[in-house]
Amino acid sequence: MYCSMKDAKVRLYVEHPLGEGQTIPLERDQAHYLFGVMRLGVGDAVALFNGRDGEWRCGVVEAGKRKGVLVCEAQTKPLQMPPDLWLIFAPIKKARTDFIVEKAAEMGAARIMPVQTDFTNSERIRQDRLQAHAVEAAEQCGGTFVPEVADLQKLDRVLADWPEGRQLMFCDEAEVGSAARLGAASGDQWAILIGPEGGFSPDERARLKSLPFAHVVSLGPRILRADTAAVAAMTIWQQALGDWG
Amino acid sequence: MYCSMKDAKVRLYVEHPLGEGQTIPLERDQAHYLFGVMRLGVGDAVALFNGRDGEWRCGVVEAGKRKGVLVCEAQTKPLQMPPDLWLIFAPIKKARTDFIVEKAAEMGAARIMPVQTDFTNSERIRQDRLQAHAVEAAEQCGGTFVPEVADLQKLDRVLADWPEGRQLMFCDEAEVGSAARLGAASGDQWAILIGPEGGFSPDERARLKSLPFAHVVSLGPRILRADTAAVAAMTIWQQALGDWG
């Protein structure tokens, strides 16, 4: 089912081991969220996950204004790792960047990498804020894994340091006649590169096309916003090579 | 390229015939947008489209506070019709509904149909506001066609009145083991149904599965927000049966 804010059991990401009988002390902002905002109290249940141990049903044993304690009762979901897929994109506007990070988390990216490109080399990000958005997307959509949001890097550097064995799918509207297909590509380790609104520079485009590990895919004849393009590209990949059955 | 707000030539949807030498009188809000907000003046160019005649470069001949006149100079894009695809969805939250309408327009829906389902039968919409969002998405993403946003109907009614020959793709997370594939389906006239956050009722699910024109498709093992699901579903369809090459 699509993730619903209404009637959702309360889910929270914690940086703490989870296991039967494990005691979880809450940080101030977590206590405020559970007891001040969501109005939970002693005896209520919360679903916790930490990105490693799946999801656990936990009972509230102490509920205060600025602190609290939960105890793990039973595992309710095993850890569901996404495929080994990186989502690389060029942030411009804050709101659109937030959407891209959320959708990348929903769609199963293992790692989210903001990059500066030739046309976007003065953009900046708040890595901590974007990481919080990825956590929130996982909390709201029932996820048990949270993708890491990397620090901003130059695309040139990411390509220069490219790890052996990882394939790259990039989407370039300038490719007239290319298909929305991954063709004969294979492999377990992949990355998807979504160019900036405004596109890649001619130098970047030439460089990308020359890379032996790069595969160009079309996203159709209409222009897409960057967050729409991210979901479309990830859908194509998940269908062809990922965990979409 | 992904649609960019920065450096975009000014594009405007008008409800007026377009053709060489055609004079276009502007309405008050259009004049305010072009001359007050975008600071254009006599001699500047604007790209106009009306959903029928493609895109035309038009010159400003009169620029006033509450009125203005443009003249069509040359066609810059032919009309690009989307496939005959309906996007049917269940609105809940206003912001999420706005996103779904915008993305449906970006992704090539010909018609956008908000419906009430068993779990969302008290929701309401502002059809005029949603139509304006579809227009805006087309303006911002270089489109020459604007999908119609229909009035809210009950899903039961839409299914009861289903036109002969149109196929339906619906996405149901309860289908364990179903693939993100359209399989052997074919045909020119289609609809995609995105269920509400909260899902279909058991009755609805049973009814949908019994329809001879319905095809169920999985959107993977992770829960998706409704606007993410809409883009993913439309990507699957466009790749398999649409105009994505």
Automatic annotation (TrEMBL), chains A, B:
GO BP, sorted A to Z: rRNA base methylation
Domain of life: Bacteria
Chief place where the protein resides: cytoplasm
Reactions that this protein is recorded to catalyse: uridine(1498) in 16S rRNA + S-adenosyl-L-methionine = N(3)-methyluridine(1498) in 16S rRNA + S-adenosyl-L-homocysteine + H(+)
Gene Ontology cellular component terms for the protein in this record: cytoplasm
Ribosomal RNA small subunit methyltransferase E methyltransferase domain ranges (all copies): 83-238
Pfam families: Methyltrans_RNA, PUA_4
Enzyme Commission numbers on file: 2.1.1.193
GO molecular function ontology, one term from the record: rRNA (uridine-N3-)-methyltransferase activity
InterPro entries to which the protein is assigned, alphabetical: Alpha/beta_knot_MTases (IPR029028), PUA-like_sf (IPR015947), RsmE (IPR006700), RsmE_MTase_dom (IPR046886), RsmE_PUA-like (IPR046887), tRNA_m1G_MTases_N (IPR029026)
Keywords: Cytoplasm, Methyltransferase, rRNA processing, S-adenosyl-L-methionine, Transferase
SUPFAM superfamilies, sorted: alpha/beta knot, PUA domain-like
Function text: Specifically methylates the N3 position of the uracil ring of uridine 1498 (m3U1498) in 16S rRNA. Acts on the fully assembled 30S ribosomal subunit.
Family statement: Belongs to the RNA methyltransferase RsmE family.
PANTHER family to which the protein is assigned, alphabetical: 16S RRNA (URACIL(1498)-N(3))-METHYLTRANSFERASE (PTHR30027:SF3), RIBOSOMAL RNA SMALL SUBUNIT METHYLTRANSFERASE E (PTHR30027)
Name by which UniProt lists this protein: Ribosomal RNA small subunit methyltransferase E
Source species of the chain: Shimia aestuarii
